[in-house]
């Protein structure tokens, strides 16, 4: 009797891979050499936050973890940031093994690549870009920290950690109060924000820019790249201006003009999935926090190191709604027509993301309603889903996220939200529901909507 292999299900395999890495990371963080007196749930939370490049913390990275523990967190951030499938592809190459269909499916799923072709070359492009950008960032930060009279070893450690954490949009910091001590510095926020932006726009965009502007292999930038760059620029500029407008005479009132602009710019960049902050968000008004939550929900770009619904999804949604209101059947962007499948995927991502967020917030209100107000819980949930790491802070401890106050069940909800936000709602959805092709059709029915 012939035996038939089950069809490859990349979504389930990808999720399983992330879970294995997270569990291994949690186990390593529980070792005495990594941290002292850390509970299993806190080790699991920290490992998930690192692998999902989120940055929400229930233990102070600076004081609660040893040098070994910090290195493990850094390693988990790097694996999660560039995708473990990218590293696996490179590993297969060094073993002189060709990657088969299963590995190609997983690779394509994990980095949001558009084609099955040249996946191995693209994997090495990701690794090269990562090493170059993180290396340059570390050199710049190392030089600055040396100017602050830090010991060489300490300066090097802080520089490497923050460069990797920034490029991977993780938001973890080896300073207890994050980047509040660099509030008056323009250099550190600029370097960190540039690393965040480069990591957030995605490797596909970086490769496209390089092939178009540097090597001249492409005649022009792709529509995807144009959408990402345009949307990213608009969100940063608009976010900066709105934060200045909303907080000029409030939380920013005591700062000089240049510092006001610097803080507003930095806090407009970091909600795009990197939870660094140069000012305590608890000082912000409700309107500014609502803006930050919106930016966190939108997130970074496909193929990048961040989460959220993605800039391209947001743009496609806006263009589709505009065309529907105008009675047009086609959606055009940069003189190109979007196919219906892309539009449907954008709406599906939005609906699934919003559905999970509402579910997570509802569960947290049931579990933690007596410990925190709606705004604090909503902010934490959106930050987890967008893999951002910004938080309104714990009421019970300084320098920790609001999740520190949650029960084990509440932390598990946040853990699940971080994982779904990093992997993607479409991937999780396809892992839970098997696609099925219909060999027949039904008659049309009309329903009144609106």
UniProtKB/TrEMBL annotation:
The chain crosses the membrane at residues 15-34, 71-95, 122-146, 186-206, 227-246, 279-300, 345-367, 374-392, 412-433. The keyword Transmembrane applies. It holds the Pfam family TrkH. It is a multi-pass membrane protein. It comes from the Bacteria. The keyword Oxidoreductase does not apply. GO terms for molecular function: potassium:chloride symporter activity. Keywords: Cell membrane, Ion transport, Membrane, Potassium, Potassium transport, Transmembrane, Transmembrane helix, Transport. It is found in: Cell membrane. GO terms for cellular component: plasma membrane. InterPro entries: Cat_transpt, TrkH. Its main location: membrane. NCBIfam families: 2a38 (TIGR00933). PANTHER family: KTR SYSTEM POTASSIUM UPTAKE PROTEIN B, TRK SYSTEM POTASSIUM UPTAKE PROTEIN TRKG-RELATED. This is Potassium transporter. It comes from candidate division WOR-3 bacterium.
